[in-house]
């Protein structure tokens, strides 16, 4: 049986029984709202975790285990993106959001605003306020049908007191994989304004050919000097609950700052089994990832075909990376939240775009990392609900 | 083979190879400096974690899995300590220190000092400064050979701007298990001064008869109203690297405060497999714990016998709870740090008491949760080093 057939065969009943967040939060609806995969992680990753348990690796995180993850991350960055990073500059953190919070607290000018291209990953919209910081949303522009940075808007926001620009590449929720020239244009502005960049690259392993991930900090010495990069195996190998990610430091001053105990505290919550899983994913999970990417590639095309056939008024452009689909529901004739409409009327639970910032109003965030028959069922249910709605 | 024989048979070579933090940080020395056990966790716990991996529980933490840990914690608190806590008031956090940091930030008067009986668990000494708070150390008193709270000192510190009293019961590093009357005396002072208590009860499962753990918040409605309790399976079942602990809320105002997103953020880093492990520990790890406690009981007595025979000048009182021995090295004729002396001259790595606060100067913190032959070897090596030292 091929991988695609195996994944196709994972039914809703089995997913409900396994009880992931996606399939338990809304027991009446198809779960498509949280960016996790409905497929088991790579066997090599699962085996590594189970072996670590058998070896008794449940105590405090040993240095050698940390180091192995840093080395595996460095190999991955080098082999996959051509970026050479010294392992000693790769630090363990529990998750990307902890990396962001640490960046805001210790690597930006006190009180400076956080500049956020939108629509954005939902917590990016709300976290700055927890640190007493203003979030300045800079909506993305559309050019030739694809989303691009509003460079003038970013420039103005940084000139107007912005201290940190949050980048997300590959872009959650828009699915863009930025080209080197686009990143260079951003870096020029950030450098001119003396600001910092937090580059969330958690989706980097999830890029569809011919697109290629370019690590933002790798594009120039200037970008390396103003950037803190967050990486993780958690999206591509479906490990968010295991709590391990990597911060990549790319200048001496940041390394020195990270050495301070109150900053290095960010490492404290990193879980052993997450570290072991990430190490195995980067080193031994590569073939599995290729198969999974091929399946996801089919999913992003299938969704396009299904929408064109059943809900042609729904706007959709297949993501270049990530397993997140950004759906434009503005022309569907729905009053109020389209997510509420489809959850209650169609039994499909998605994230409302408004949670991604004001620019997301009228949009939906649909997670593609699910068996294809479930995508078909979701689109069918959505189309039926729209038909019922129109018939009233 | 009995459990004791199995545990006795775990040799240093095997521990080095397994590579725990304790046995890898100082490759030349016996590891006795970090509070983790050299024994594998309960088979029921290891099985639960491996089954969760097989079931694909690597995505975001599902509500049902959180709830199961809360229910298991409630059963444990009820069955073990006679304390009835509603499961919905038990919240997941990655670790006790995250609970403390959240308590300081959101449950104490802004800018108020943190009152800390000392010697204390090392991070308690340093964390308040990370929050811009002063730490007021209140050294414990000795009465009839055992450590007791300096009630007048605590009273003065709270009167003098202290907003939070950190309790640790069973007491790391002193090994005290406080009696109800002692806790009542503390509660009366805290209540009179309008302060809060953070009660670290991470060692509660590790109590030797005839001592009994009394949850601080359980002693009176007043104590419940001013306390935030932190519990965990991580010490007793050796799971610190799996990142799960429990905050027990015992008043409506705290429940309301915890519901705020910036407060509930404390839950964010809790790792699925830690939650699964804690659930299994509290529910299915009880027999294993009894056997382990019996072994540790032997260890604390053995250490006393060995010290009396080989290093009679070393002060030691067997802990009533925890697997931490607090050794008084002040009469050994050592200049400078006794931990440095024993690590470099005896090949035994312990924590220097000074890291536990000024009151710890001249003391050592030795972790007892190790095979008995290793305790014997450690004491022998320490006695030899002292003999060499005296002969110079």
UniProtKB/TrEMBL annotation, chains A, B:
EC top class, as a word: lyase
Cofactors (names): pyridoxal 5'-phosphate
Gene Ontology molecular-function annotations: cysteine-S-conjugate beta-lyase activity; pyridoxal phosphate binding
CDD domains: AAT_like
Highest taxon, organism lineage: Bacteria
Similarity section: Belongs to the class-II pyridoxal-phosphate-dependent aminotransferase family. MalY/PatB cystathionine beta-lyase subfamily.
PANTHER family, sorted: CYSTATHIONINE BETA-LYASE-RELATED, PROTEIN MALY
Protein's UniProt name: cysteine-S-conjugate beta-lyase
Gene that this polypeptide is encoded by: patB_1
């Amino acid at each position: 049986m091929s991988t695609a057939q195996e994944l196709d065969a994972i039914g809703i009943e089995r997913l409900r029984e396994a009880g992931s967040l996606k399939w338990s939060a809304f027991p009446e609806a198809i779960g498509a709202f949280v960016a996790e995969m409905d497929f088991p992680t790579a066997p090599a990753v699962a085996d590594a975790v189970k072996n670590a348990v058998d070896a008794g690796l449940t105590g405090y995180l040993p240095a050698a285990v940390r180091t192995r993850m840093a080395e595996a991350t460095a190999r991955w960055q080098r082999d996959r993106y051509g970026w050479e990073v010294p392992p000693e500059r790769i630090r363990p953190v529990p998750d990307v959001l902890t990396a962001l919070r640490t960046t805001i607290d210790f690597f930006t000018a006190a009180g400076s605003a956080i500049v956020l291209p939108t629509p954005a990953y939902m917590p990016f919209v709300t976290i700055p306020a927890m640190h007493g910081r203003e979030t300045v949303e800079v909506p993305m522009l559309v050019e030739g049908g694809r989303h691009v940075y509003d460079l003038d808007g970013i420039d103005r926001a940084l000139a107007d007191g912005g201290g940190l620009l949050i980048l997300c590449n590959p872009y959650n929720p828009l699915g863009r994989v930025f080209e080197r020239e686009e990143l260079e244009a951003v870096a020029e502005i950030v450098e001119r304004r003396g600001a910092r960049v937090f580059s969330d690259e958690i989706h980097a392993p999830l890029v569809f050919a011919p697109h290629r991930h370019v690590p933002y900090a790798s594009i120039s010495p200037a970008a390396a000097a103003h950037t803190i990069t967050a990486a993780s195996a958690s999206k591509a190998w479906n490990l968010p609950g295991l709590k391990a990610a990597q911060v990549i430091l790319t200048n001496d001053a940041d390394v020195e700052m990270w050495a301070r105990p109150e900053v290095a505290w960010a490492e404290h919550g990193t879980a052993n089994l997450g570290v072991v899983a990430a190490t195995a994913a980067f080193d031994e999970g590569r073939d599995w990832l290729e198969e999974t990417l091929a399946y996801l590639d089919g999913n992003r095309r299938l969704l396009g075909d299904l929408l064109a056939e059943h809900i042609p008024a729904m706007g959709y452009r297949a993501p270049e990376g990530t397993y997140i689909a950004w759906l434009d529901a503005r022309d569907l004739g729905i009053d109020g939240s389209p997510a509420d409409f489809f959850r209650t009327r169609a039994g499909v639970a998605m994230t409302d775009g408004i949670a991604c910032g004001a620019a997301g109003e009228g949009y939906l965030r649909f997670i593609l990392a699910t068996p294809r028959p479930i995508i078909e069922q979701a689109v069918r249910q959505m189309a039926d609900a729209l038909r019922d709605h129109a018939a009233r």
